[in-house]
Amino acid sequence: MSAASVQNGKLKVAHTKSSEVLELMREINNFLDQLEEDLPQEGVVTEAPELSQRTYKLLQLRDRTDRKSCVLERLSATVSELMESESETGDSKAPTHLSTKLSEVQSRWSSLTAPVSQQYTRMKEASTDYGEFKTLVAQESDWLDRLEKKLRRSSKCAADAEEISEVI
């Protein structure tokens, strides 16, 4: 009777962990489906507002992904625990099946979350480069404006460039 109780307890724990694994996989797959829909298509950004919007959207997606990664870690830990307990009971098919399903989820996770990070990094760099470009253009415009003012002031006193070249 005692062995049956122990086995029954192990089965209840395995059932609970299996249910948790299924729920975590469902949660991650739903998240990945939504991420797939929300991920902006790669393409050329031609306007500053579009650059800002895309960068912000990718930042939000990256943050959501970072927050959801704990669910993937919990799933991996739960599957490991379940596989250990099932290997003790002698069920060799379940750990292989769980391992395969976990690998599929992890592979899908990687294939969808990696582009989020890559695109965000590229958009962030582009935003930084654009900011630097705007600063340089503003500096150049300022310098040209000051040069133009100096040329206007000195044109009354100085000779024309052609006149100077004729004298030389």
Write the layout of secondary structure elements.
Blueprint: H1 2-38, H2 48-89, H3 93-155, H4 161-167
Helix pairs in contact: 1-2, 1-3, 2-3
DSSP summary, beta strand count: 0
Shape: rod-shaped
CA-atom Rg in angstroms: 32 Å
Helical content band: over 70%
Class based on secondary structure composition and strand pairing: mainly alpha
* Number of DSSP helical runs: 4
Low-confidence stretches: none
Report the major sheet: none
Pattern of helices and strands: HHHH
Q: If you average the pLDDT, what whole number results?
A: 85
Strand content: under 5%
N-to-C CA distance:
118 Å
Descriptive notes:
This protein is mainly α and 168 residues long. It has helices spanning 2-38, 48-89, 93-155, 161-167. Helix 1 packs parallel to helix 3 (93-155) and helix 2 packs antiparallel against helix 3. It is rod-shaped and about 115 Å long. The model has no long low-confidence stretch (mean pLDDT 85).
Keywords summarizing the entry:
168 residues; mainly alpha; 89% helix
The gist of it:
Helix content is 89%, strand content 0%. It has four helices and no strands.
